[in-house]
Specification:
Helix content is 31%, strand content 22%. It has 740 residues and is α/β, with parallel strands linked by helices. The longest helix is centred in the last third of the chain and has 18 residues, at 655-672. It starts with 10 loop residues before the first strand and ends in a 5-residue tail after the last strand. The relative contact order is 0.08. Bound molecules: adenosine-5'-diphosphate and zinc ion (ZN) (2 copies).
Length: 740
Amino acid sequence: MATDGGGKPAILRLAVPVPLRRLFDYLPPQGSDSAQLLPGQRFWVPFGGRKLVAVLEDIVSESPLAELKPALEQIDVTPLFDRQSRAFLHWAADYYQAPVGELYAAALPAALRKGKLADHWAEQWLELTTEGKGLPESALARAPKQQALLQLLLRDGRQSRPHLKTLGHSATAIRALLDRSLAQWTAGPTAPPPLSTDKGAAGAAPPRLNEEQRQVLDAIPADRFTVSLLEGTTGSGKTEVYLRLMERVLADGRQALLLVPEIGLTPQTLRRIAARFPGRSIAALHSGLAEGERARAWLSAAADQADIVIGTRSAIFTPLHKLGTVIVDEEHDGSFKQQDGVRYSARDLAVVLGRNAGVPVLLGSATPSLESLHNALNGRYQHLRLRHRAGDARPPQIHIVPTLGQQLEEGFAPQVLRHVGETLARGEQALVFINRRGFAPTLACDDCGWLADCPHCSSKLTLHRRQRQLRCHHCDYRRPLVDSCPQCHSRSLSALGAGTERSEALLTHRFASYPVIRVDRDTTASKQALDKLLAPARAGEPCLLLGTQMLAKGHHLPRVTLVVIQDADGGLFSADFRAPERTGQLLEQVAGRAGRGELAGRVLVQSRYPEHPLLQLLLEKGYGAFARQLLRDRAVAQLPPLRAMALVRAECEEAKWAEEFLGEARRQLEALAPPSPQLQYLGPVPALLERKSGRFRFYVQITAEKRGALQALLARLCQWAEGNRNRRLRWAVDMDAQEL
Ligand code: ADP
Ligand code: ZN
Ligand code: ZN
């Protein structure tokens, strides 16, 4: 049996991925060597009849438990997590009220989470011998294939076997260099393959920074923790600033971490970054990768072999020992917040990571989140701005098309359809944006504009078709569904935003002589698929692009001159207090798609309520003024970011059980901390999406003046909730919840 050297048996204190907020003690596996036990290694452990992958936190000599089981097997020799990344995960576990074992699980790529061996991906590398290194690039001129291979190895250093294959170097050429003792195979840990094979683009001279960009860069300190919010419209040159910051960090021998939204990591983006840094190794971490590839990229980054790590949300947990900066692009994007399991925000954790490492954090967006904007306006973050478009493109013209009382064809005003037709006939491209996300239907009258208001709150009632009811999600007022408008008795009532499928059918039919490219989750399973789908649009032929928010960003489509926003209203009247913010961001981003090239752009926004002050503000003064107004509204309503907010969620096939559980949770909360002006409770109320996958979802909302007080309260609530024995009921704490 392993001992700690002093004769007492060593005990392993492990983080196990189970929903219990504590660590678990085990004896070391049979016959293991205590000198080989290091925190950060993975172990297989028995747990409740199952076998789980746990991470070693600590080695102790005593356990409060009398009977300890031995762990089954040690997986790693080299720890996967160092002290600093473990501390970071613990901080996140505390902040989000999550079991630390679940944070490790969230941090690990799937293959490693399932216990695959880390050295499974050890690579075969082709590198030059001393003799090979002594040759000039012009050597082997009589064997061009061998010469090309020699040049590659001289310029970019050792190459992995799969990468050589990707670049098209033949086995014969490799054999020849080996036979001449100019090159040799070595085994070594994996490094990510350099992404760029695009020799034309590689090494392209970067543009000269304009004055604003230079000021922005100068304001970011080299190696001190600061958070900067970079606010700049689409095309104002933010990405160029990121590239320069990365360049600085790389020159310093450090690593750069760039977080991008789920739909932002397009092959286009990757190519642009790879082209700027030829010869540097770039690890891309995203859900489009096969499990093995992703684990390989993660391990290479953790082994200091990646200079740049680009990834979506979970890349924030990649252990980087030489971190030089963290950049979050499109920081307002909802995909940075995990919506199940550990409900962390990668954007917010980026700030913590930067603080721990003592390096600058840069948050960039054309449409900053109210959270970041608030921090920038109150001076906690540095507020940097780019006010002009960097290239020649001019800002688009925006017009509201009032739809009330108009003869709409499947949701489109006649003049809008006419504009689409004319655009296509001129040989240009049109983009029709259909907002479906976060949609909480409320009822509206098509003739007089009546809306189903709550008599007790300043909010709309939400349509619940199943119960044939209209309900208020703020105070739980309910009334039966009506068949006719209470104001004008018209029977033409519609759920705001509904009928998108029919709109799509109409456009496809009406403009059948042009390619209609539909972009949404269903048509684009992968990034490559999207890239391919958009190829005709990039080629510049007249076509109609039709889609959801996937179309809103990241694609440079210079021939799009008309953007149509079918319905701006849904988001303005949702029961979700964040809906106007999201709508504003989306509208601004979509509008930014128009006129990216030399051709001027036009944006048509359909609305039943052209006089709506928020819509007016957005379209006339832009997102900046709009967002500042929303911040004032949030202050009045005592909502985030002026208040800290958390939800206690529960879901169950039996609605009654979820409601009862949360009712009891609220009683527990009120017993611990009675409601006051500084601490307020709401609920249980049904979630906006009340039923999902056959489960009914409810929440209790807590808003607090002091984050610390809220944290302490939630920690105690979790202790109580862990006692829940109803296996069919799931509960969770959602700190800084983004969705209701
Ligand atoms: P953003 O990320 O804010 O949308 P980009 O950095 O992608 O903006 O810049 C928009 C376009 O302008 C790109 O084609 C980019 O190459 C170009 N650009 C950026 N900075 C400059 C500059 N200083 N001079 C000339 N062109 C620039
Ligand atoms: Zn009416
Ligand atoms: Zn109400």
